[in-house]
Write a structure and sequence with these properties.
The complex is a heterodimer. Chain A is built from 8 helices and 17 strands. By secondary structure, chain A is of the alpha+beta class. Helices cover 70% and strands 0% of the residues of chain B. The longest helix of chain B has 23 residues. Classes of the chains: A alpha+beta, B mainly alpha. The interface between A and B is large, with 65 and 76 residues.
């Protein structure tokens, strides 16, 4: 492309030209690289990953079809006839499940007035499972644990059903499913920009409005401190599809607050330098020691989630995944060194709408007939850059939040 | 430093060796600083670009497969970083003017060769659009099509900016030295 004589002159002149940058550049680079390596995998994400992995394993395990075959020690199948028929009739749960709990009932206590195994030494073959059986005898309720494994070829005997006396579980086993619910929730946690930038302050300062850029212009030289937090408040609505599946949506106001401190800021084209524009001759430096600012973003989030109820009794446990379109509302940049600014999507570097992925889990306890009080944790990750294509930095933030919710169960 | 040494440095950097990172920086930063200066209007801005660019280099160095091309790869990263800065400049171009008496134009670029220093000053004195297009076309070797895609402008705009840059540079050179360039 360099066919022009003038171009060649410049090209040749710069071919081997060198200029030593100031020592502080390397110091800043070393600090930023060290910082980014420390941020690479926050411990909270590792914990979330472990929880997700365990939850996924449990779900996979529970969905494994059992089709267990129970035989006597003489390999003759143990039929339901060997369980007291009169008791089965009074216990539809057992009648439905058969002797071994079906896959979708695992970890749910099986209600029976009494299980009567005639053959004292049943041998279980086929796939393994873990199940709970609650029996009732003249002494009250008993909680029994069945551990069945193909590899163990475990023998179930009458003694396996004599583990403990736990009348407390009578309340726990009450099924309290409601089809529809509405709720309110609050969450708080941390946020990570995932900007890939060396200096977060640089990224934060630059992804602001055109007017803000008069001051920042992406020239925060180094970051000495950085912290990000996020909060959400919202309303939710859910519907139980089947026994274990549910869908959930809602509306939430998401606020992300990022604080950063830089040791210097250079304005290369600010309103205070008219001569600069006239001469196009390099900028003077505005040095502001310990320069700090708060950057607050507000989004309206509309999550759409699918949940799986691992446990749905008086105490419950749900895992869920979904997506969330986030609508950018505004951004506010504040600092003691300059006036605060509010920007909307149209005059900022942010997209109006972005899409997030969500994964989370929740435990809850039933309060009365109509309320659930829950604790939840959510991890969300932006599926696209939240910044516009022409923004100087690409950011796809992730957030981890812990929170609580209160739900009203509509019959 | 030989290409073999460059390869060893890259391998060490990919293992996270901080001494190797510093050595890599010391080796290439003087040349890359000039690249950054061509796209900037001040030493400080160039150092910002250099800093941001080298952090990217160390973050992404595991993606570099051909270690013998490390210099070209670093240069590409620095140019891309500079272009990101340039995009924000173009985006913000209409500015409000307010006077400030503290501004100074006394500068010393410190490049041993006066010719290079002068040429650098000339490039930096160009309007932002001309400066970027001239750098990309005449020195980096981008085509007008590539420039248009990179800066989200038309090829015609790229060509006209280049023509304007050449004209301004010829005028300035002519005024300084009475030399005619093709």
């Amino acid at each position: 492309m360099v066919e022009n004589g003038l171009d060649k002159s410049f090209n040749n002149a710069f071919a081997d030209a060198e200029y030593l940058p100031s020592p502080k550049v390397w110091e800043n680079i070393a600090g930023a690289v060290q910082l980014s390596e420390r941020r690479a995998t926050p411990i909270i994400y590792k914990i979330a990953a472990v929880i997700t992995l365990i939850a996924s394993g449990v779900v996979f395990y529970l969905n494994t079809s059992l089709n267990s075959e129970i035989t006597n020690t003489g390999n003759a199948p143990v039929s339901k006839d060997q369980i007291d028929n009169s008791i089965l009739e009074s216990s539809p749960e057992v009648n439905e499940l058969g002797f071994i709990p079906a896959a979708d009932r695992i970890l749910e206590p099986v209600v029976a007035t009494r299980l009567n195994i005639e053959s004292g030494n049943a041998v279980v073959k086929d796939e393994g499972s873990i199940g709970l059986v609650v029996t009732d005898n003249s002494r009250g309720y008993e909680l029994d644990v069945l551990v069945i494994s193909k590899s163990w070829n475990m023998q179930i005997t009458q003694s396996d059903f004599q583990l403990s006396m736990v009348p407390f579980w009578e309340k726990l086993i009450e099924r309290k499913s409601s089809k529809l619910w509405v709720g309110a929730e609050f969450g708080a946690g941390n946020t990570n920009l995932n900007s890939g930038q060396s200096a977060s302050a640089d990224a934060l300062a630059s992804v602001s409005s055109a007017e803000d850029a008069l001051y920042f212009s992406g020239n925060a030289i180094s970051t000495t401190d950085f912290a990000g937090s996020s909060f959400s408040t919202g309303l939710s609505i859910g519907y139980n599809l089947k026994r274990k599946w549910m869908i959930e949506s809602g509306l939430a106001l998401m606020t992300t607050q990022l604080q950063a401190t830089s040791n210097a800021v250079e304005s290369i084209r600010g309103r205070y330098f008219p001569v600069y524009y006239e001469l196009k001759f390099g900028g003077d430096l505005i040095r502001v020691n310990e320069y700090s600012f708060n950057n607050t973003f507000n989004y309206l989030s509309v999550p759409l989630k699918v949940g799986y109820k691992i446990l749905d009794k008086r105490i419950g446990w749900i895992i869920n995944v979904g997506v969330s379109p986030n609508i950018f509302l505004n951004q506010r940049l504040e600092s003691v060194q300059f006036d605060s600014y509010n920007t909307s999507a149209s005059d900022s570097f942010f997209r109006s709408v972005t899409l997030n992925s969500i994964a989370g889990t929740e435990v809850f306890i039933r309060i009365g007939q109509h309320y659930n009080l829950g604790l939840h944790s959510n991890y969300s990750f932006s599926l696209m850059d939240v910044t516009k294509p022409d923004a100087p930095f690409a950011i796809h933030p992730s957030q981890f939040q812990l929170g609580f919710n209160l739900r009203y169960l509509i019959k | 430093m030989t290409i073999d040494n460059h390869k060893k440095l890259v391998t060490s950097c990919q293992r996270g060796d901080t001494q190797a990172q510093e050595a890599l920086y010391r080796t290439f930063s003087p040349k890359m600083m000039v690249v950054a200066m061509r796209y900037s209007n001040s030493v400080h801005e160039a150092e910002d670009i250099l800093q941001e660019g080298f952090v990217k280099v160390f973050q992404k160095i595991n993606t570099l497969n051909d270690h013998s091309k490390v210099e070209a790869w670093i240069r590409k990263v620095i140019v891309n970083t500079a272009l990101n800065h340039s995009r924000s400049k173009l985006y913000m171009f209409p500015m409000v003017e307010v006077h400030d008496d503290s501004f100074t134009t006394d500068r010393d670029f410190g490049i041993p060769s006066l010719e290079v220093k002068d040429l650098l000053q000339l490039i930096q004195s160009l309007p932002d659009g001309c400066q970027i297009v001239f750098n990309m076309y005449a020195i980096e070797g981008f085509s007008h099509k590539e420039i248009a895609e990179e800066l989200h402008i038309s090829e015609g705009t790229s060509k006209s900016q280049l023509s304007r840059a050449r004209m301004l540079l010829r005028d300035k050179l002519g005024n300084r030295k009475g030399v005619k360039y093709g």
